[in-house]
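quick q for whoever's on today - can somebody do inverse folding on this one?? i tried earlier but teh output was garbage lol. tokens:
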């Protein structure tokens, strides 16, 4: 006899036995705030979104046509878990330098950098395994690693990034599985790890044989200052680097990569196979057809000019409208800057007041793996045009002045 169908779904689901990780991983606060910021007339500095009006629509449209014309049915077929060879070859050439030679066998194409973080978690982390990271650090990495019940040991930051003098003692005491860093225009602070500290960090990683995860989505978005060699360039095989086309072409394509020594890349490949078999074949070909024509270089120049203008305007407006006692970073590139309010204030408590005044941001506390940061917040300057930046910072300044 077939049991009767019940509409009491909530009671049914509540009795199911879920894995522990299902309860440990919390909703991403940024995604939740983005829902709030959809209110009419709200100016949002909350997301890490590239400017949609700058997407290279015509070039992508042309690239899609070339995919069908040049590659045909294989572009719609299953493909290698490592990624299509044409794109991996192009990336290997672009990432290689006189000091670092990378082969296509050392590159794994992923479904966004977030999948790269998840695969790294699958390979290195389990309950109680330690991740050494910056304080604050990228929220998406915490969300990925939390699924594997990692524990965190944090290293303080200053204007030169991670304070490497703290690293050796913490490696010896806590024996981390990985060192995680966003060294270029860090998300969330916008701070760049100095060249000297990069060499110091690599030296310590080699000394204690701890792999560094170099998460580098923003490295090509530099607006001023001297470029510095990547951790991967300095560290070679001790460094596993993540890169992505999300910030320099389009996040919707979900094409990113992981580069590591070929002795470990096969392990990453096997663990990725259990998630999606391979990254979207057609999107890989679209990216390849876009970049092989040189369109990426032209597009990057356009992005750098536009984002530099938006960053400059945001800083100018903050200097004009923010009251004394509010500190903020002045990033040389990337998409974000970081605000520190007087200790007595809570950025979380102020968020509802800011939204009521038509402006949204991300409170800083979720970026702190071990708690803290109640008086901090992250602002994104890439997704709002100059007019909205001026008005949004003016509104935010009014909120600050009212409570400071």
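ok took a stab at it. sequence:
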């Amino acid at each position: 006899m077939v049991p009767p169908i019940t509409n009491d779904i909530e009671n049914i689901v509540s009795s199911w036995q879920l894995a522990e990780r299902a309860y440990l991983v919390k909703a991403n606060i940024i995604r939740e705030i983005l829902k709030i910021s959809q209110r009419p007339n709200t100016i949002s500095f909350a997301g890490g979104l590239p400017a949609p009006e700058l997407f290279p629509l015509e070039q992508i449209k042309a690239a899609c046509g070339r995919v069908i014309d040049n590659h045909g049915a294989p572009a719609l077929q299953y493909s290698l878990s490592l990624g299509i060879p044409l794109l991996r070859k192009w990336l290997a050439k672009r990432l290689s330098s006189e000091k670092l030679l990378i082969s296509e066998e050392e590159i794994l194409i992923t479904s966004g950098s977030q999948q790269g973080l998840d695969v790294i978690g699958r390979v290195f982390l389990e309950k109680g395994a330690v991740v050494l990271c910056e304080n604050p650090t990228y929220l998406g990495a915490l969300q990925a690693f939390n699924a594997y019940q990692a524990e965190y040991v944090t290293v303080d930051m200053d204007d030169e990034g991670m304070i490497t003098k703290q690293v050796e003692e913490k490696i010896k005491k806590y024996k981390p599985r990985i060192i995680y860093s966003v060294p270029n225009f860090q998300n969330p602070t916008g701070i760049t790890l100095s060249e000297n500290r990069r060499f110091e960090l690599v030296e310590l990683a080699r000394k204690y044989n701890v792999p560094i995860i170099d998460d580098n989505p923003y490295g090509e978005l530099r607006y001023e200052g001297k470029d510095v060699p990547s951790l991967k360039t300095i560290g070679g095989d001790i460094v596993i680097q993540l890169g992505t086309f999300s910030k320099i072409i389009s996040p919707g394509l979900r094409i990113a990569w992981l580069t590591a020594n070929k002795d470990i890349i096969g392990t990453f490949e096997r663990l990725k196979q259990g998630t999606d078999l391979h990254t979207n074949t057609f999107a890989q070909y679209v990216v390849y057809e876009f970049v092989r024509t040189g369109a990426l270089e032209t597009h990057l120049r356009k992005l750098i000019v536009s984002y530099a203008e938006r960053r400059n305007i945001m800083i100018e407006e903050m200097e004009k409208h923010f009251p004394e006692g509010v500190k903020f970073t002045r990033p040389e590139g990337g998409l974000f800057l970081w605000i520190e309010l007087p200790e007595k204030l809570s950025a979380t408590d102020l968020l509802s007041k800011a939204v009521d005044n038509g402006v949204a941001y991300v409170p800083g506390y979720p970026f702190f793996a071990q708690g803290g940061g109640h008086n901090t917040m992250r602002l994104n300057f890439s997704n709002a045009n100059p007019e909205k930046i001026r008005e949004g910072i003016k509104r935010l300044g009014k909120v600050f002045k009212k409570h400071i």
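fwiw The two ends are 69 Å apart (CA to CA). also The chain has a mean pLDDT of 95. so keep that in mind when u check it
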